[in-house]
Amino acid sequence: MLQLVDVTKVYRGGKRAVEGITLDLQPGLIGLLGPNGAGKSSLMRIAATVTRPTSGQVLFQGRDAVAHPNPLREALGYLPQDFGVYPNLTAREFLAYLAAAKGLSVRSARARVDELIQLVNLTEALERPLGKYSGGMVRRVGIAQALLGDPKVIIVDEPTAGLDPEERVRFRTLLSDLSVDRVVLLSTHIVSDVDSVAADVVVVARGRLLRRGAPEDLLRDVDGQVWEATVPYSEVAAVRAVHTVSRMVRTTTGVRLRMLSPTRPSADAVPVAPDLEDAYLGIIGRSVAVGR
Ligand SMILES: Nc1ncnc2c1ncn2[C@@H]1O[C@H](COP(=O)(O)OP(=O)(O)OP(=O)(O)O)[C@@H](O)[C@H]1O
User: 206 alpha carbon to ligand 1 midpoint, in Å?
Assistant: First the structure.
């Protein structure tokens, strides 16, 4: 439905944020994972037609969405990373304003706004000005506005920033439900945001696509390479210098480390089943090791 073809973004001043990324996106939830500065937001802005690629193509239903962005814009719900609100409007006024800008009729806008306010759990704060909302509440308004107009493509950039754990789970479930017949592209640097909801994971770093696959494929990459061992606190730095450590828990007997290593890292290390966080760190770690 939405394709990025060999997309590159070079900002004024020469910063290369995206380096030849090709992605064919079909309905479903696609998790775009990468560390800070990987180029996720740049890629999302290009996919959302708010930034033009320096080279490469964006195609929506086979048509050029760079030269003719309107068909994609009409089908799009976008939550940018730097989403802002008008502080003097209430949530209802703000959403009604955006619904009007999207061309929804007054009647269908009113029903949709009420529905969305319930969906993102803002009913109680409805009549308060947005300037008095917490960061997490503003985020929820952002999610609601992205869903106005029943979009076929939903692009959400770090949507869970500022949400509490319960809201995160709720939001993950919502996006998963929506992805049944829509493209939902979610960017994050938090692996648990895509774990168990994304059937398709894309890992980017330094502007490049490093790996794309189903979570089970990514887990297979590090099968037999994840270990746990307890080491004295004084040895932690030495272990970390050699291995990617994905978890560290201080215990009464030392520090319990979870680490990636192609071979058993120490005599007392026990193999454990990999999770997506291990797989992700493995991909990022390998890309650093080979200098990509
Ligand atoms: N408008 C801009 N002008 C110049 N450089 C930019 C601009 N926007 C982003 N960059 C740079 O491009 C690189 C990629 O940034 P981008 O925001 O796309 O990454 P990201 O993966 O979304 O990271 P984060 O999660 O920190 O936002 C970074 O080095 C960033 O500083």
Answer: 10
